[in-house]
Amino acid sequence: MLKTIYQGKELKQCPECGSDRLVKDFYRAEISCAHCGLVLDEELLDSGPDWRSSDTEPSNARAGPPSTLMIHDKGLSTVIDWKNKDIYGKDLSPHRRAQIYRMRKWQSRIRISDALERNLVFALSEIERLSSSLKLPKNIREVAALLYRQVLEKRINKNKTTEGLVAACVYAACRQLKIPRTLDEIEEQSRVDKKEIGRSYRFIMMGLGMKLPLSNPAEYVSRFASQLGLSGSVQTRAISMLEEALQRGLPSGRSPMGLTAAALYLASILENEKRTQRDISEVVKVTEVTVRNRYKELQDTLGIDIKD
DNA sequence: AAGACGAAAGTGGTTGA
DNA sequence: TCAACAACTTTCGTCTT
């Protein structure tokens, strides 16, 4: 397992708020707190085996299962042919025939479980690849893998692409563990498009009878803020504005991203670290127009006026 | 010249008959 | 299954700093 070493000591809880939802970000070698957004950026050490920093090489070069697992028999499987003849072309005795019949039956059964197995092996390596390029912590992978096994169990995967389902599992795991990644970000690393991922996601939720709460805009604040180089006070401000707006019942039916962007924009102005609407819209991946609309609404509901 | 603003038309997804 | 609808995007002209 990975240990979080900070200033020589193992860190289990956020020094700021005490939350244990610490996120390790190997890309920037940072630890951040998923709860309050505090970012610690020193000496993130990795004491676990088998991790390659994926900074320098494409992340799909990551160590997966041995390749012999991917093609479990290396393409050399034996097939019992359908003719009831022996190798000399003679008919088989009834006893022999029955024996061969049973063997065929077993072989086809084994094939089915092979297919499932192979699917799972591929899916698991894909989960690994995806979450590794998304710099996701390990527990996400486990949750995603578990979800995928359930998908197979309930046969939700019928007529659907494995890649779409895998991406959806990863997305769902992120939502569940409140380590927010947007659909856009997952799409970037996956070979399937947003539409497909979203569809698979809904199938899974329906099939497993799950329901995940809408993602909370505040969860995204710290990550986007750090991408924009905004200070902690801006983050805190943005989060508290979001919370207040939420209490006043603003964000009904609005996309979380738009709200996050708006809150960041407002907070950046209020804290004198102004970013342009464009800067923010680029990072958050919504349009300037949406930023504008949302932040107007935010202003209205909160009764804030910016002029100084 | 860059940023902010808002109108108008277009897009993709949801919902309800 | 289809049409109405809300949220969001694209595009573009205008105003402000």
Task: Describe this protein's structure.
It contains eleven helices and five strands, in the order E-E-E-E-E-H-H-H-H-H-H-H-H-H-H-H. It has 308 residues and is mainly alpha-helical. Among the domains are: 39 residues, N-terminal domain of TfIIb (Single Sheet); 90 residues, Cyclin A, domain 1, CATH 1.10.472.10; 86 residues, Cyclin A, domain 1 (Orthogonal Bundle), CATH 1.10.472.10. A hairpin with a 2-residue loop joins strand 1 and strand 2. The longest helix has 40 residues. It binds a DNA duplex (17 and 17 nucleotides) through helix 11.
Brief overview:
This protein has 308 residues and is mostly helical. The chain has helices at residues 67-70, 94-133, 138-153, 162-177, 183-189, 194-207, 218-227, 232-247, 256-270, 277-284, 288-302; strands at 5-6, 9-10, 22-25, 30-33, 39-40. The chain has a three-stranded antiparallel β-sheet with strand order 3-4-5, with no helix packed on it. A two-stranded antiparallel sheet has the order 1-2.
Structural class: mainly alpha
User: CATH H-level name of one domain... which superfamily?
Assistant: Cyclin-like
- The residue fraction in helices comes out at 40-55%
Distance between the termini: 51 Å
- Taking Cα atoms only, what radius of gyration do you get, to the nearest Å? 26 Å
| Beta-strand content bin | under 5%
